[in-house]
Design a protein that fits this description.
The chain is mainly alpha-helical. It has one domain. The chain is built from 13 helices and 2 strands; from the N terminus they run αααααααααααααββ. A two-stranded antiparallel ribbon has the order 1-2.
């Protein structure tokens, strides 16, 4: 005997979408405030290790299966690509780039996912809409970080390059996680990815000498508050809201965060942190966000929603595995 799920109220869907937009859109500004007095890699490691431990322990106490060594190995690979490389690139680059600009550059992850879906063995050729979105997206990135003669303030090339590499590796990790031998309970796999990714980020911070430069007495209340916000709101509440959306609305609607979050990040960086908002940034932002819209809405049904490297882990839309979002 089957039971149809009662549709969620419209007000609840709208409120949850707004929460995802605002929470994940604000994580870029949160990272900026956190790394003012906290070492970037150690901060990110603490964030994800704490969130992952809470999620993992909560699910295990509720009866989730005990992970195998194979599960942990897959979680370490996925967490390493998405969190250590993807989020690690974000937190490092934000010492050189404004938070809004960082959000724009990392919003191109769906473009990389579409390309990887195409070039992998047995991959699917993108539709014309997706192909146009890919070309438009990369044109927007060139406009954003191109020569100073194009107008607007200069964008740090090393920071932009690190973000591009991190976003690409995030996309690789997202595709890997779809078929990786992770636990049957998607949220458990997500917690494991955060635990492994957090540990790897802490290791990178240690090897980078962040402990020797860390002065606990100099840590500001704003940085600590930002770290708490990133951990509990960005990683736990934001992710829980997104999971609820995936179960109650079409994936196309849930994935609208991909082109809404950069807008939120730019506006918050401008309004609260005094970040510059030049015509060049606005024009490039419109091009990139439009490209992400084309790729997201033009992808074939088999393609899952891609992640944006700033918020938290994300499950695949089929519910069998867990992709990690930052």
């Amino acid at each position: 005997m089957s039971h149809d799920r009662r549709p969620a109220p419209t007000w609840q869907i709208a409120a949850t979408l707004a929460a995802v937009y605002l929470i994940w859109g604000s994580t870029y500004l949160g990272i900026r405030y956190a790394i003012e007095t906290l070492p970037p890699f150690l901060m990110a490691g603490a964030r994800f290790a704490t969130a992952g431990a809470i999620l993992f322990l909560w699910l295990r106490l509720r009866g989730a299966e005990r992970p195998t060594w194979r599960n942990w190995r897959a979680a370490a690979v996925a967490g390493g690509l998405m969190l250590m490389c993807g989020n690690g690139g974000v937190v490092w680059a934000q010492s050189r780039l404004p938070s809004g600009l960082t959000a724009l550059l990392t919003s191109g992850v769906p473009l990389y996912v579409a390309l990887l879906e195409w070039v992998k063995r047995g991959g699917r050729r993108p539709t014309g809409r997706v192909g146009a979105g890919i070309l438009l997206g990369f044109a927007g990135m060139v406009l954003l970080v191109g020569p100073h003669s194009l107008g607007g303030s200069r964008v740090d090339p090393l920071g932009a390059l690190v973000l591009a590499a991190g976003s690409f590796l995030w996309a690789c990790g997202s595709l890997y996680a779809r078929g990786a031998p992770l636990p049957r309970t998607p949220l458990l796999g997500t917690g494991m990815q955060m635990l492994c990714g957090g540990a790897l980020l802490a290791l990178v911070g240690t090897l980078n000498g962040e402990w020797s430069r860390f002065d606990a007495a100099a840590v500001s209340a704003r940085s600590l508050g930002a770290l708490a916000y990133l951990t509990f709101f960005g990683s736990l509440l934001g992710f829980s809201s997104y999971v609820w959306l995936l179960r109650n609305v079409p994936v196309a609607l849930a994935s609208t965060y991909a082109y809404i979050n950069p807008v939120i990040a730019i506006l918050l960086g401008w309004a609260l942190a005094g970040e510059p908002l030049s015509p060049r940034t606005l024009a490039a932002g419109a091009v990139i966000i439009g490209a992400v819209f084309l790729v997201t809405t033009g992808s074939r049904p088999q393609m899952r929603a891609a992640a944006v490297p700033s918020a938290t882990p994300q499950p695949s839309t089929d519910g069998d595995t867990a992709d990690a979002r930052l």
